[in-house]
Here is the input.
Amino acid sequence: MIDISETLEDLYLSPSSWGAESAREAASSLARHVGALVDWDADAGESWVSVILDARRVAMVSTSYPLAILEGGTSWNPEDVELVRSAVIVPSFDAPFLRCDIVHLGQAFGESERFHSVNIEQFSANDLWYATI
Here is the structure.
Protein backbone atom coordinates (compact mmCIF):
# COMPACT_ATOMS: atom_id res chain seq x y z
CA MET A 1 0.00 0.00 0.00
CA ILE A 2 1.28 3.46 -0.91
CA ASP A 3 0.17 6.17 1.50
CA ILE A 4 0.11 9.53 -0.29
CA SER A 5 -0.99 11.55 2.77
CA GLU A 6 2.41 13.10 3.51
CA THR A 7 3.10 13.73 -0.17
CA LEU A 8 -0.14 15.67 -0.55
CA GLU A 9 0.41 17.55 2.71
CA ASP A 10 3.88 18.61 1.60
CA LEU A 11 2.49 19.83 -1.73
CA TYR A 12 -0.46 21.84 -0.44
CA LEU A 13 1.60 23.42 2.36
CA SER A 14 4.40 24.50 -0.01
CA PRO A 15 3.61 27.43 -2.30
CA SER A 16 4.40 26.76 -5.92
CA SER A 17 4.06 28.50 -9.26
CA TRP A 18 2.93 25.18 -10.75
CA GLY A 19 -0.16 25.39 -12.93
CA ALA A 20 -2.02 23.92 -15.86
CA GLU A 21 0.63 24.88 -18.42
CA SER A 22 3.37 23.27 -16.32
CA ALA A 23 1.30 20.10 -16.03
CA ARG A 24 0.67 19.98 -19.77
CA GLU A 25 4.37 20.42 -20.52
CA ALA A 26 5.38 17.70 -18.04
CA ALA A 27 2.76 15.27 -19.38
CA SER A 28 3.79 16.02 -22.96
CA SER A 29 7.43 15.25 -22.15
CA LEU A 30 6.47 12.01 -20.43
CA ALA A 31 4.27 11.01 -23.38
CA ARG A 32 6.88 11.81 -26.04
CA HIS A 33 9.47 9.53 -24.47
CA VAL A 34 7.18 6.48 -24.44
CA GLY A 35 5.22 7.20 -27.64
CA ALA A 36 1.98 7.97 -25.83
CA LEU A 37 -0.77 10.57 -26.22
CA VAL A 38 -1.76 13.38 -23.88
CA ASP A 39 -5.41 13.60 -22.88
CA TRP A 40 -6.75 16.65 -21.04
CA ASP A 41 -10.01 18.53 -21.27
CA ALA A 42 -8.98 21.95 -19.97
CA ASP A 43 -12.35 23.46 -20.91
CA ALA A 44 -14.11 20.96 -18.65
CA GLY A 45 -11.82 21.94 -15.78
CA GLU A 46 -10.06 18.60 -15.49
CA SER A 47 -7.40 18.78 -12.78
CA TRP A 48 -5.20 16.03 -14.22
CA VAL A 49 -3.41 15.78 -17.55
CA SER A 50 -3.36 12.11 -18.53
CA VAL A 51 -0.79 10.17 -20.53
CA ILE A 52 -2.48 7.44 -22.55
CA LEU A 53 -0.56 4.46 -23.94
CA ASP A 54 -2.32 1.62 -25.76
CA ALA A 55 -5.75 3.03 -24.80
CA ARG A 56 -5.02 3.10 -21.04
CA ARG A 57 -3.85 5.74 -18.58
CA VAL A 58 -0.21 5.18 -17.57
CA ALA A 59 0.46 8.58 -16.02
CA MET A 60 -1.37 11.62 -14.77
CA VAL A 61 0.04 15.01 -13.85
CA SER A 62 -1.77 17.37 -11.50
CA THR A 63 -2.64 20.85 -12.75
CA SER A 64 -2.58 22.12 -9.16
CA TYR A 65 0.66 20.66 -7.80
CA PRO A 66 3.98 19.39 -9.19
CA LEU A 67 2.71 15.84 -8.70
CA ALA A 68 2.63 12.90 -11.09
CA ILE A 69 1.25 9.42 -10.63
CA LEU A 70 3.17 7.04 -12.89
CA GLU A 71 2.71 3.39 -13.76
CA GLY A 72 5.87 1.55 -12.75
CA GLY A 73 5.97 -0.85 -15.68
CA THR A 74 6.56 1.99 -18.15
CA SER A 75 10.12 3.04 -18.99
CA TRP A 76 9.94 6.72 -18.07
CA ASN A 77 12.77 9.08 -18.90
CA PRO A 78 14.19 10.17 -15.49
CA GLU A 79 14.66 13.73 -16.78
CA ASP A 80 10.94 13.91 -17.58
CA VAL A 81 10.02 12.56 -14.14
CA GLU A 82 12.16 15.29 -12.57
CA LEU A 83 9.86 17.93 -14.09
CA VAL A 84 7.55 17.31 -11.13
CA ARG A 85 8.54 17.60 -7.49
CA SER A 86 6.70 14.47 -6.38
CA ALA A 87 6.26 11.30 -8.41
CA VAL A 88 4.26 8.40 -7.03
CA ILE A 89 4.93 5.11 -8.78
CA VAL A 90 2.07 2.59 -8.81
CA PRO A 91 2.22 -0.95 -10.22
CA SER A 92 -1.12 -0.43 -11.98
CA PHE A 93 -3.63 2.37 -12.49
CA ASP A 94 -6.52 -0.06 -12.00
CA ALA A 95 -5.50 -1.93 -8.85
CA PRO A 96 -6.06 -0.35 -5.40
CA PHE A 97 -2.50 0.40 -4.27
CA LEU A 98 -3.09 3.88 -2.80
CA ARG A 99 -4.41 5.17 0.51
CA CYS A 100 -4.76 8.67 1.93
CA ASP A 101 -6.28 10.38 4.95
CA ILE A 102 -9.52 12.12 3.95
CA VAL A 103 -8.25 15.36 5.53
CA HIS A 104 -5.30 15.50 3.13
CA LEU A 105 -7.46 14.65 0.12
CA GLY A 106 -9.81 17.48 1.05
CA GLN A 107 -7.01 19.97 1.71
CA ALA A 108 -5.26 19.13 -1.55
CA PHE A 109 -8.23 18.78 -3.90
CA GLY A 110 -11.14 20.45 -2.12
CA GLU A 111 -14.11 18.74 -0.57
CA SER A 112 -15.76 16.40 -3.02
CA GLU A 113 -18.77 14.13 -2.69
CA ARG A 114 -16.86 11.69 -4.90
CA PHE A 115 -14.46 10.97 -2.01
CA HIS A 116 -17.33 9.18 -0.29
CA SER A 117 -17.56 6.71 -3.16
CA VAL A 118 -13.87 5.81 -2.77
CA ASN A 119 -12.44 3.55 -0.09
CA ILE A 120 -9.72 5.94 1.13
CA GLU A 121 -7.87 3.05 2.74
CA GLN A 122 -7.41 1.30 -0.59
CA PHE A 123 -7.99 2.94 -3.96
CA SER A 124 -6.51 2.96 -7.45
CA ALA A 125 -4.87 5.80 -9.34
CA ASN A 126 -7.90 5.78 -11.65
CA ASP A 127 -10.16 6.15 -8.58
CA LEU A 128 -8.09 9.18 -7.53
CA TRP A 129 -8.41 10.66 -11.02
CA TYR A 130 -12.19 10.18 -11.00
CA ALA A 131 -12.65 11.57 -7.48
CA THR A 132 -10.58 14.68 -8.14
CA ILE A 133 -11.29 15.67 -11.76
